[in-house]
Amino acid sequence: MQDLKRRVLQANLELFTSGLVKYTWGNASGIDRARGIVVIKPSGVPYTTMTEEDMVLVDMNGKVIEGKLKPSSDTLTHLVLYKAFPEIGGIVHTHSPFATAWAQAGMAVPCLGTTHADYYRGPIPCTSALSEEQLKGDYERETGNAIADCFKALNPVHTPGVLVKNHGPFTWGQTPEEGTFHASVLEEIAKMAYYTLQINPSASCNEQLKEVHFFRKHGPTARYGQ
User: Fold this and answer.
1) Which residues of 183-217 are buried (b: 16+ CB within 10 A; e: fewer)?
2) Ranges under pLDDT 70 in the chain
3) What domains sit in the chain, N to C, each tagged with a CATH number?
4) Active-site option among 23, 139, 195, 224
5) C-alpha to C-alpha distance for 76 and 136, rounded to whole angstroms
6) What is this structure's pTM?
7) By 3-state DSSP, what share of the chain in percent is helix, strand and coil, each rounded to 5?
8) Three-state SS for 161?
9) What is the pLDDT at residue 223?
10) Active site residue 224
11) Of the candidates 87, 105, 83, 122, which has an alpha carbon nearest to the alpha carbon of residue 164?
């Protein structure tokens, strides 16, 4: 587990050094599926002082099995997603400004060009608002349920991120590092989409072009890279 703790720490530190999070606004986790153990950032601990030994280990029910600190307050959201998306191995949550602005507006980020299409197939969806009943209940778990409901007809591998309405983005990947990468990409394309629509509110992108670019990097016919 030491290696996973190290990688989860580095994923969290990358969020901070890349400017995707400020203060303690965000978290990254990773899962050892064979053992059913999740490693996650501790709650409210500054990135500038965080160490490998500060990482918290929890089981799939959220019970702390190693660590002296409390796990992230978003832990139950991460656990719901690990259960709903068996293909993923790392999850990231930030409050990066452009992605969060789209989330606060309650709007999906439309795919307006090839930069977006290279990494996310189709729009980055935005969840429905949580109901009054959900807000009164187990809020973090219900946040995960809202994301899972949003993906009933979507492939989480092809769309490795989501906006939670009025909250912010969650992203994921096969590893914690990939989750962090997808968080960075999401923020950049959210920024690009915002500026594009300021220049041309009617901007759009050809569906075939989007598909060509997505599958140029993904799937059995991928031909990008080494």
Assistant:
1) bbbbbbbbbbbbebeeeeeeeebeeeebeebbbbe
2) none
3) 2-217 (3.40.225.10)
4) 224
5) 15
6) 0.94
7) 40, 15, 40
8) strand
9) 84
10) yes
11) 105
3-state secondary structure labels for all residues of 71-95: ECCCHHHHHHHHHHCCCCCEEEEEC
Is 118 part of the annotated catalytic residue set? yes
Distance CA 134, CA 92 (A): 22
53-66 residue pLDDT tens: 999 999 999 999 99
Given the residues 32, 54, 118, 194, the one annotated as active site: 118
Concatenating the DSSP letter of every residue in 88-154 gives --EEEEE--HHHHHHHHHT--B---SHHHHTT-SS-B-BPPPPPHHHHHS-HHHHHHHHHHHHTTTS
- Count CB atoms within 10 A of the CB of residue 111: 23
Residues in the chain: 226
- 206 — phi, psi (to 5°)? -60, 130
Residue 21 near residue 47 (C-beta atoms within 8 A): yes
